Predict the 3D structure of the following.
Amino acid sequence: MIPLEDEFGDILRKAMLGTSVDALALSKATGIDARLVEGWTRGHGTANAEQARAIAPLLGLDGGRLADSAGSRWYPQVPDAPAVRHHPQDPHPSNGYVFFLDGGKRAALVDPAGLPQNLLRILSDGAYRLQYILITHKHADHCDATADVAAAFPLATIVMHSLDVHAIGALARKATLARDGDALPFGDGVEIRMLHTPGHTDGSSCYLLRSTLFTGDTLFAGSIGGAYGDVSTYGDILNSVRSKLFTLPSDTVVMPGHGPPTTIGQEREHNPFFGKNS
């Protein structure tokens, strides 16, 4: 079982940074010792349900869902996606994916990262044509093997948002700069849709193939990515999820950049960053 990307302390830390609410402010509002709160953000222990519910509204989080996180009471029912192959991106703790069409004859790679020899071994295991190299964002654990993959598959089209494409160096000149809503043809009558979801980085993007969504570090099972944009903000990542991802059908399978798969429906119901208090 793949562990969740974020535990209670990670969620708490991201929300505190995003809202600029520190441990002292939480302590004054709730009576919980500030040193205890600081410890939680560093992974030292966890809150009880009452404490989690007290903290949540001050951070724009859902109290019940945060309490579930604090008590480790939720894990997604992992959906089936038979046309998608997942691989760890050693030495990074990130997920890479290859997905297939036409009975495995056509393929696309999401986020080329990690040890190139491992990745190329995975990509050589199949008599298919690699049509796309799709990059969700600029961080090294999602794109640092782009040059090696592009050299091995020179006919594959690199796709990345213009605000992050500088991360792949000289290859940026040959990349397709996808814009929000762009549809990439992928076989007869099939398209990959790019959704620009700024917040984690300015150019963070998700890719939708039929009912499978590759979210990079925008949306995780039970959490979201940290807000590290140069211009985009914590508010932007929340809005990206609400307006671009949560409008998709509930059974849309989410393949995130870290942690286990989930579905849009499960995230609407269980993600503490969203809900009646968010």
The chain has a mean pLDDT of 95. The longest strand covers residues 95-101. The two ends are 29 Å apart (CA to CA).
